[in-house]
Design goal:
The complex is a heterodimer of chains A (593) and B (400). With 593 residues, chain A is of the alpha+beta class. Chain A has 19 helices and 21 strands. Chain A folds into 3 domains: 34 residues, no CATH class; 167 residues, Alpha-Beta Complex (Penicillin-binding protein 2a (Domain 2)), CATH 3.90.1310.10; 337 residues, Beta-lactamase, CATH 3.40.710. Chain B has a domain of 171 residues. Chain B has a two-stranded antiparallel sheet. Classes of the chains: A alpha+beta (593), B mainly alpha (400).
Chain lengths: 593, 400
C-alpha cells in the first residue's frame, strides 16, 4: 500500500485484473498439487513406501524348517527334506530367451507359463518350488543371470502310507492341508527368516546400506499318541481283513480309554503321503478333486454310520443309570417284537426264547433291548445321549470332524425308540462311538480322543503338554463296573467269543448293521472291545465296510480284534493272567510214571 | 523488504518524475542502485538448492556412467554461475532496447529451430532432435524462443494496441510466432505449448477485446489435437496417463509416485533417496521434484512450492508497478513462463497430468534451460531497476 502510493503504474486496472486472473489459476493449481502431494506422501504414504521397498529390496528368504511329527516313542513320522526353489529377478536377466528356454526345459514347465512369469513386472517371481536338488544344481551350474536358486524344505513322510489319514500332508508352501498337519499347523510352522538387501535398479547391492538379516525360527515338533508298532500292525491287520473279506474299507481305532490317547488309527486303503495327489488305485482318465477328497477322507472322523448292536452298550448303560434294569431281569424273545403296527425282527428269526438280560446282551438280542429302551423312555434316553457326548463333536484334534444325526426328540415315537435301542435309525461317527464306550468302561470319565501328546522346540525341550477336556462322573462307576462285567461275558461266552484271547480278560460287543438303503445287502460289520476288563487300557473299534460273503461282526470283526490283542497287549506290557487251574490242561509226561 | 523500501524511498527522492519522459532507448540502463533484491535472493536460493539436489540425484548416475560423482552437479554449477553473471549483465541492459530486436529475435529463433530440426549439428536426445550442437555443447533453441516470444508479444501489444484487437491485425502480428511455434511443436510439443500460453496470456492481459484471441485459441486447440495424434509417443504418453498405455510410459509415472510416496512428512534425509539409484529415470532432470519429495518429504516439497509462489508473486508485484506497458507485458510473459513450467513439472511428477519433458525452473539439471532462465531473470531485474516513483508531495526537499 505504502509503495503503491508512490509508484507510477502503467498497466491499467483491467490489465492488472487480467494478470490477477492468471495468478489465481496458478495459485489454485499449486494448492491442488500440494493436496495431491499430501495424499501421496502422508495419507497413502505407507502403501507407496511398502511398494517402493518391495521394488528396492532383494529379499532372500531363509526358509524355516517345519517341525517334525513323532510317534509317542520318538519315531519320526513326518520330517523335512532339502529341496530347492527356482525364481527369477527380472532386472538381472540378460538373456531372457535363454532363461525361458532352459528353465522350461529343465523344470518341465510349459514355455508360455515360464515366459509369463519371467515378463511379470514384479521384482522377483517364483518359477517353481520343491525342485529336486539335482535339477536345481543343474540350473545353478548354468550360471544364468537373473535366475536364483534358493534352498527350501519339503515335507517327507518316511513311512509313506502309514497313518496317512491321520497325519495328512502339506502343500507347496509347506502349509498343512489335511490331518494333524492342519490342526497343529501353528505349532509346526516356523517363522521364515530373510536377508533383505537394498539394491539399486540393476539389482546390485548398495554397499553403504547394511543387510537386514532376520534369522528363521524352526517350527516346533509334535509328539503324537500314535505308536508306530501298533499303527503298522493294525494297518496290516486291516489290510488283511479287507483282502480276506473283499471289503470296501476297514477301519481300526486303538485308543486308551482312560485318557483318550489314540495309539493307532488305520483306515485302509491308505494313500501315500509323499504322493498325495496320486490315486491309491488304478484309474483310467483324469484324477478329479472329488476322487482325491474321497481318498484322503478319514472315515472314522469325517463320516457317520449306524452303529448297530455295539450301541446296545449305550442302551444298557442308560437303563442301569436310570435304575430300570437288572442283569437278572427276565425277557422273552419270540424272534420279533411288535411295536405299534410294526413287527421288528431279531437277528435270530426263531427267537432266543426266555432269557435274562445278561443272556440277552450276550446273544445281542434285539427284542430284549427294545423292551429295555421302552423302559427307559425317550427323555431319559436323550438325556443320557447328551451326557455321553453323542450330540456333540468329540473335539478330536483333527480337521473335518462330522456330527451325529439323530431324530428330533419330539419326533421319536415308540418305533424310533425301539430301533434306536439296538443302534439303528440314527448315525454317529466311529470316533463318537469309541469315545462313548470308553466313558462306559473307564468308570464314567468322558475323555476327548486325541493324537497330540506334547510339543517340543527345535532342541527337543518340551514346551507344551497338550491338554484335552475330560469330564468325570458322567456315569456312575458302579454302572461302569456292571457294564464291563456284562461285556466280558459277551466275549467269554456270547457273540463276541471270537475276540477271546487266552490269558487276557477282554470285554466287547459285536455289531452287524445293514447300510442304507435297507435290503441292499451292504453291511458294516463291527466290533468294539477292551482289555483288561477290570481296568481297561486298550479300547479297539473295528469297522468292516461292505464285506463280501459272511458279514456278521461276531464272525469277521471280533477275531481281528482278538488277533490284535494277542499282539498288542503283551506289547503294552499288560500282564497275562494265569489261566485258572480247572481250565488248564496239564500234560503229564508218560515217562514219569 | 523494509530495507529495499527504504532504498526505494531514497532513490525516489533523488530522481522521480510523474510526467512521461522521452523514452530512454539506450542500451545500458543509466540508473544505478535499486533493483528487486527479493527476486535476486529467491533466484539464487532456487539455483543453489538446485545444485544440491542435482548432486544428490545425479551422483549415482554419474558414477555409473564412469564420471566423478559431482560431474553433473559441477556442470550445473558452472553453467549456473555463467548464468548468474549473464543475469547481472542482462539486468544492466535497458529492457526497452529489446523492442529494437524483437522481430529479429523471432527470426533468429526460427532459423535455429530449422537447424535443430535438420539435425545437421548431429546428435539425438530423447528421440527428438530439439537440440543444436556446437562442438560438444548442445542447447535447445526452444528455450530462447520462450524469451523471444515474451518480448515480441509484449512489443506488438504496445506498438499498435488497436491492431491486436482485430482478428486480421492479430493474425498479421502473430504470424512469425505461429511459424516458430509450429516448428517447435514438430519435435517438442510441450515447449510449443508453453510458448503459446506465454503469447496468449500476454495478449489476454493487454487487449480490451478478447474475441480475436478466443478464435485464435480455438484454432490452436484443433491444431494441437492433430499434432498429438500424429506423433506416436505423444499419444502413447497420454494413453498411459489414462492407464491404457505401454509399460515404458507407465513405469516412469509409477516410479515417480513410489518415489514421492516413500518421502513421508519429513523425507528420508538429504542424499538418502533410494529411487535415484536407477529406479526413477530422469531423476536429476525432469523428475528431480520426486527426489526432493523422497529426501525432504512433504515439508521440503511445500518449501519448493512456496519458493516458486513467492518468486512469482514478487514478479507480479514488479509487473504491477512496471515503468511502462511494454515492461509490464514483458513481465507477464516471463511470469507465465516460469510459473507454467513449475506447475507443469510438479503436476507431471505427481501424476496429475500426462508425462511431458518440462524441467523444474532453476532446479532441474539442464544447461540451456538454466542459462536462459537466469538471463530472463536479468530482464526482470532490469525492469525492477526502472520502476518509476511518484513525487512524494509531502516529502521535504522533493523536486518537482
Amino acid at each position: 500500500m505504502y509503495i503503491k502510493d508512490n509508484v507510477l503504474d502503467f498497466l491499467t486496472i483491467r490489465q492488472k485484473n487480467r494478470l490477477k486472473i492468471y495468478i489465481l489459476c496458478f495459485t489454485l493449481v499449486l494448492i491442488i498439487a500440494t493436496g495431491r502431494l499430501w495424499l501421496v506422501m502422508v495419507k497413502n504414504g505407507d502403501e507407496y513406501t511398502d511398494n517402493a521397498t518391495e521394488v528396492q529390496e532383494r529379499e532372500r528368504s531363509i526358509k524355516a524348517p517345519r517341525g517334525n511329527i513323532y510317534d509317542r516313542n520318538g519315531n519320526v513320522i513326518a520330517a523335512n527334506k532339502a529341496v530347492c526353489q527356482i525364481s527369477v529377478i527380472r532386472r538381472q536377466i540378460k538373456d531372457e530367451e535363454t532363461v525361458i528356454k532352459k528353465l522350461s526345459e529343465l523344470l518341465q514347465i510349459d514355455e508360455s507359463i515360464v515366459r509369463k512369469k519371467v515378463s511379470k513386472k514384479s521384482s522377483r517371481e517364483i518359477i517353481k518350488a520343491n525342485v529336486e536338488k539335482e535339477t536345481a544344481d543343474e540350473i545353478r551350474n548354468l550360471g544364468l543371470d537373473g535366475v536364483v536358486v534358493d534352498e527350501d524344505f519339503s515335507r517327507y513322510y518316511p513311512y509313506d502310507t502309514m497313518a496317512s489319514k491321520v497325519i495328512g500332508f502339506t502343500g507347496g508352501d509347506n502349509q498343512g492341508i489335511l490331518g494333524l498337519e492342519v490342526s497343529y499347523n501353528d505349532y509346526l510352522t516356523g517363522k521364515n527368516g530373510s536377508i533383505n538387501t537394498t539394491t539399486d535398479a540393476s539389482g546390485m547391492k548398495i554397499e553403504k546400506n547394511l543387510e537386514r538379516r532376520v534369522e528363521p525360527e524352526a517350527g516346533n515338533n509334535l509328539y503324537t499318541t500314535l505308536d508306530i508298532n501298533i499303527q503298522q500292525y493294525i494297518e496290516q491287520k486291516a489290510l488283511e481283513v479287507k483282502e480276506l473279506r473283499n471289503a470296501n474299507r476297514v477301519c481300526i481305532i486303538v485308543m486308551n480309554p482312560q485318557n483318550g490317547e489314540i495309539y493307532g488309527l488305520a483306515d485302509v486303503p491308505e494313500y501315500n503321503l509323499n504322493e498325495p495327489f496320486v490315486l491309491n488305485y488304478d484309474h483310467a482318465g483324469d484324477t478329479t478333486m472329488d476322487m482325491l477328497n474321497e481318498m484322503w477322507r478319514c472315515f472314522c472322523i469325517s463320516d457317520s454310520y449306524e452303529p448297530g448292536s455295539t450301541f446296545k452298550i449305550v442302551t444298557a448303560t442308560t437303563a442301569f443309570e436310570n435304575g430300570v434294569l437288572n442283569e437278572t431281569d427276565n425277557f422273552f424273545c419270540p424272534g420279533y417284537k411288535i411295536v405299534e403296527d410294526r413287527k421288528i425282527r431279531c437277528h435270530k428269526v426263531v427267537g432266543h426264547g426266555s432269557e435274562t438280560f445278561r443272556e440277552g446282551i450276550m446273544n445281542s438280542c434285539n427284542p430284549v433291548f427294545m423292551e429295555v429302551g421302552a423302559r427307559i423312555g425317550v427323555d431319559n434316553f436323550y438325556e443320557e445321549f447328551d451326557k455321553l457326548g453323542l450330540f456333540s463333536k468329540t473335539g478330536i484334534d483333527m480337521p473335518g470332524e462330522a456330527t451325529s444325526i439323530f431324530h428330533k426328540k419330539e419326533n421319536v415315537g415308540n418305533v424310533e425308540l425301539a430301533t434306536m435301542s439296538f443302534g439303528q435309525s440314527f448315525q454317529i461317527t466311529p470316533i463318537q462311538m469309541i469315545r462313548t464306550v470308553s466313558c462306559v468302561v473307564n468308570g464314567g470319565k468322558l475323555v476327548t480322543p486325541h493324537f497330540g501328546l506334547y510339543v517340543s522346540d527345535s532342541n527337543n525341550n518340551i514346551i507344551e503338554r497338550l491338554e484335552f477336556e475330560e469330564e468325570e462322573n458322567v456315569i456312575s462307576s458302579e454302572t461302569s463296573q456292571r457294564m464291563r462285567n456284562l461285556l466280558r461275558d459277551v466275549v467269554a461266552e456270547g457273540t463276541g467269543h471270537n475276540a477271546y484271547v487266552e490269558g487276557y480278560d477282554i470285554g466287547g460287543k459285536t455289531a452287524t448293521s445293514e447300510k442304507l438303503p435297507r435290503r441292499s445287502g451292504k453291511y458294516i460289520a463291527s466290533f468294539i472291545g477292551f482289555a483288561p476288563v477290570d481296568e481297561p487300557q486298550v479300547l479297539t473299534l473295528i469297522l468292516i465296510d461292505e464285506p463280501q460273503g459272511v458279514y456278521y461282526g461276531g464272525t469277521i470283526a471280533a477275531p481281528a480284534v482278538g488277533d490284535i490283542y494277542k499282539n498288542i497287549l503283551p506289547y503294552l506290557n499288560i500282564e497275562r493272567e494265569e489261566v485258572s487251574d480247572e481250565e488248564e490242561i496239564i500234560y503229564i509226561p508218560d515217562t514219569v510214571f | 523488504m523494509d530495507r529495499s523500501m527504504e532504498n526505494m524511498e531514497n532513490h525516489m527522492e533523488r530522481k522521480a518524475t510523474r510526467r512521461p519522459q522521452k523514452e530512454d532507448r539506450s542500451f545500458f540502463t543509466k540508473k544505478r542502485g535499486y533493483m528487486d533484491y527479493q527476486i535476486l535472493f529467491l533466484v539464487i536460493t532456487a539455483f543453489g538448492f538446485g545444485i544440491m539436489m542435482v548432486y544428490s540425484a545425479s551422483s549415482y548416475k554419474a558414477v555409473s556412467m564412469g564420471y566423478a560423482n559431482y560431474y553433473f552437479a559441477l556442470r550445473q554449477a558452472e553453467i549456473g554461475l555463467a548464468g548468474l553473471a549473464g543475469m547481472l549483465f542482462v539486468s544492466k541492459i535497458n529492457y526497452r532496447w529489446y523492442k529494437n530486436i524483437s522481430r529479429i529475435l523471432i527470426f533468429i529463433c526460427i532459423v535455429l529451430q530449422l537447424i535443430a530440426l535438420s539435425g545437421v549439428t548431429g546428435g539425438e536426445s530423447h528421440g527428438a532432435s530439439r537440440w543444436i550442437y556446437i562442438g560438444s555443447i548442445g542447447f535447445q533453441p526452444g528455450e530462447i524462443a520462450k524469451i523471444a516470444i515474451a518480448i515480441y508479444t509484449a512489443h506488438i501489444c504496445v506498438s499498435d494496441p488497436k491492431n491486436v484487437e482485430s482478428l486480421v491485425g492479430l493474425a498479421k502480428s502473430v504470424w512469425p510466432m505461429v511459424i516458430l511455434m509450429g516448428l517447435i511443436a514438430v519435435e517438442n510439443l510441450s515447449t510449443a505449448v508453453i510458448c503459446f500460453v506465454i503469447m496468449v496470456v500476454t495478449i489476454f492481459v493487454a487487449c480490451r477485446d478478447l474475441k480475436p484471441l478466443a478464435i485464435m485459441f480455438m484454432i490452436a486447440g484443433v491444431v494441437g489435437v492433430i499434432l498429438i495424434l500424429t506423433k506416436g509417443y505423444r499419444g502413447a504418453r497420454i494413453l498411459s496417463f489414462f492407464g491404457k498405455g505401454t509399460e515404458a510410459g507407465d513405469y516412469q509415472n509409477e516410479q515417480a509416485l513410489l518415489t514421492i510416496g516413500s518421502g513421508g512428512l519429513f523425507g528420508k534425509g538429504l542424499g538418502q533417496s533410494i529411487q535415484k539409484l536407477g529406479f526413477l529415470p530422469e531423476s536429476h532432470n525432469d523428475f528431480i521434484f520426486a527426489i526432493i519429495c523422497e529426501e525432504l518429504g512433504l515439508f521440503g516439497a511445500i518449501c519448493v512450492i512456496a519458493l516458486f509462489a513467492t518468486l512469482v508473486y514478487r514478479m507480479v508485484y514488479v509487473a504491477f508497478h512496471a515503468p511502462d506497458s511494454f515492461s509490464g507485458l514483458l513481465l507477464t510473459g516471463i511470469i507465465v513462463h516460469i510459473s507454467l513450467q513449475a506447475i507443469i513439472n510438479i503436476c507431471v511428477v505427481t501424476g496429475l497430468v500426462p508425462n511431458t519433458g518440462v524441467p523444474l525452473p532453476f532446479i532441474s539439471y539442464g544447461g540451456t534451460s538454466l542459462l536462459f532462465l537466469l538471463c530472463e531473470m536479468g530482464i526482470v531485474l532490469n525492469i525492477s531497476r526502472q520502476i518509476k516513483f511518484k513525487v512524494k508531495k509531502t516529502a521535504p526537499g522533493a523536486k518537482g
